[in-house]
Amino acid sequence: MDDANAVDVAGVPASTLNLIDLSSSDIRRSVSLLKQACLDSGFFYVINHGVSQDLMEEVFVQSRRFFGLPLSEKMKLLRNEKHRGYTPLFDQVLDPANQINGDYKEGYYIGVEVPEDDPRAQKPHFGPNLWPSEDILPRWRQAMEKFHCQALNVAKVVTRIIALALDLEADFFEKPEILGEPIATLRLLHYEGLVSDPFKGIYGAGAHSDFGFITLLATDDVPGLQICKNKDAKPLKWEYVQPMRGIHSEYLGDMLERWSNCIFRSMLHRVIGNGQERYSIASFLEPNHDCLIECLPTCMSEENPPKFPPIQCQTYLSQRLDDTHADLNVYRREGA
Q1: Is the dihedral of CA 131, 74, 282, 260 positive or negative?
Q2: What is the tens place of the pLDDT at every residue in 17-29?
Q3: Strands 105-110, 225-228: pairing kind
Q4: C-alpha distances in angstroms, 258 versus 82, 132, 170, 178, 292?
Q5: What InterPro entries has UniProt attached to this entry (predicted)?
Q6: pLDDT, tens digit, for every residue of 304-335?
Q7: How far is it, in rounded angstroms, from Cα 280 to Cα 190?
């Protein structure tokens, strides 16, 4: 099976997406399907990825347990400057031009675990994670760390197919200077049972493209994710994506768009609430902190010169996170 069809929801068209089988021995076909998806929308499904259904279900169970805690308990784990920990409702505003408050979602960031006394912890997106107490949520940390590790491995496999689709060597992105010590982040997300109203600026998550390299997304069976295959269109045309248990959705971020000189486009997407609670788990893969994001040699020519100046990964990522998240001083003043 090479594509999957979403169900039409509330009159919004459904999307057809390519399926990339990571167990397939036909690498040419996988590259062809992925390249078509990246040129078309920057969004595709990944199947036979090696993450067990039992582990995926366990992570969703544990996610629900955390978000089911009283707000006072969750706020004890409020995110820090390293973007580790809990993000409350409205903490993030992804589409400020069209949102009245912010995203009607809460989340939890988990990154690469780096001890406080490790020199790497001085970097902006490295450091120790914030973990709920084992007394309150037993086995929570173990489940998250296991899933985080396996999702990172899946993402790295996908980067090999992306490299081939860009006429690069398969291991191009696995070079020590690119993904030797990547900024890899797991984010649990919970959308309350709110009905979105785009005409009033109310969204589960505002329209945006992800900031980094690639994103791996696991969802429950509640619809809500919408994608826009042409973010330059006026007006934007949105399509629902069918939630599929056990299958990861994958979409491209802005760094890959910059790397590929807009040959591959980052995916514009949003979440529209329909009155049902919804849970999802995003795994973000970004390069090393000091990796320079600049036009790839296979993506430029005299007719198509580089469209973006080079920029360090950590600089770009920090700017985008700071632009979309609330200032932590807001919470400090509220707690004073």
Answers
A1: negative
A2: 889 999 999 999 9
A3: unpaired
A4: 24, 37, 19, 15, 11
A5: DIOX_N, IPNS-like_FE2OG_OXY, IPNS-like_sf, Oxoglu/Fe-dep_dioxygenase_dom
A6: 999 999 999 999 999 999 999 999 998 977 76
A7: 7
What token pair was written down for 25?
A: 């021995």
The rounded distance, in Å, linking the Cα atoms of 87 and 106 is: 5
Domains of the chain: 3-335 (2.60.120.330)
Dig out the tokens for 270 from the structure. 């949003």
- DSSP one-letter code for 56: H
- What one-letter code names the amino acid at 271? V
Residue 328 belongs to what H/E stretch?
Answer: helix 328-335
pLDDT recorded at residue 65: 98
Q: Is 27 helix (H, G, I), strand (E, B) or coil?
A: helix
Per-residue confidence band for 336, with pLDDT thresholds at 50, 70 and 90: very low
- DSSP tag of 189: E
Q: Long-range contacts made by residues 317-320, C-beta under 8 angstroms, separation at least 24?
A: 317/125, 317/183, 317/211, 317/212, 317/286, 318/124, 318/125, 320/211, 320/254
**Residues 286, 70: contact at Cβ < 8 Å?**
no
For the record, the structure tokens of 56 come out as 């995926």
Mean pLDDT, all residues of the chain = 92
Instruction: Yes or no: say if 90 and 259 are a contact pair by the CB < 8 Å rule.
Output: no
Top-confidence residue, 116 or 336: 116
Rounded CA gap, 206 and 186, in Å? 20
Lowest mean pLDDT among 33-47, 180-194, 253-267: 33-47
Q: Does the pLDDT at position 5 exceed 50?
A: no
Give one DSSP letter per residue of 106-162, joined into a string.
EEEEE--B--TTSGGGGSTT-BPPP---TTTSTTHHHHHHHHHHHHHHHHHHHHHHH
Q: Residue 101, class by beta-carbon neighbours within 10 Å (0-12 exposed, 13-18 middle, 19+ buried)?
A: exposed
**What is the CB neighbour count within 10 angstroms for residue 73?**
15
